[in-house]
Amino acid sequence: DVKVTQSSRYLVKRTGEKVFLECVQDMDHENMFWYRQDPGLGLRLIYFSYDVKMKEKGDIPEGYSVSREKKERFSLILESASTNQTSMYLCASSFFTGTGLTYEQYFGPGTRLTVT
Amino acid sequence: TQLLEQSPQFLSIQEGENLTVYCNSSSVFSSLQWYRQEPGEGPVLLVTVVTGGEVKKLKRLTFQFGDARKDSSLHITAAQPGDTGLYLCAASSGAQKLVFGQGTRLTINP
After folding, report:
1. What is the pLDDT of residues A59-75, one digit of tens each?
2. Which of A102, A106, A107 has its CB closest to that of B31?
3. Which stretch of A2-6, B10-14, B62-66 has the lowest confidence by average pLDDT?
4. What is the mean pLDDT of the segment spanning B94-104?
5. DSSP for A53-97, written as a single string
6. Which residue, A52, A83, B19, B110, is most buried by CB atoms nearer than 10 A?
């Protein structure tokens, strides 16, 4: 089974703090993703990475950066946390199934971040 | 911009009833996936459909990909309280990124 783990299930930080969210996958997947999920807004892609040291902006990259130094690890960084970054953060990894041009994504359990 | 519209957004029914959730788009996709997400957890992949007209069954859940590969449905027979959750459809056009629907929040009342 694919396993995607996230460093924390719950996190409380203060405005202005630098926040690191870590994600690790154990299936040698090429692609990794960071999303945030908010009520009424669905899943929104922040950044994704298709290889070590490679990254691409998603739909809402402002206020975030990422790092992928090793294939299995993808970090999301909030340089200066703000209250509007309070959200559920989900990490995912994916691989190409070879069938129907399909990439299947597998998600971690999520990190509920509260910025006060 | 590719969009996936899910309907209904909310559904609350009694245990034992049947239901269908829809996922529609004006775009053609190479594949479509369904996820279920329970409160406080990440989405869990239920099924992937890749061929137009394809039907897949997972116990009491039946998934269908439209003939034109623009839409999909999820039918649950004799719903159980354990089916409660947020159901998300997600589609791929062959790229690494997926397009997600807004989700259907399903509540099954005992």
Report:
1. 999 999 999 999 999 99
2. A102
3. A2-6
4. 87
5. TEEEE-S--TTEEEEEEETTEEEEEESS--GGG-EEEEEEEEEE-
6. B19
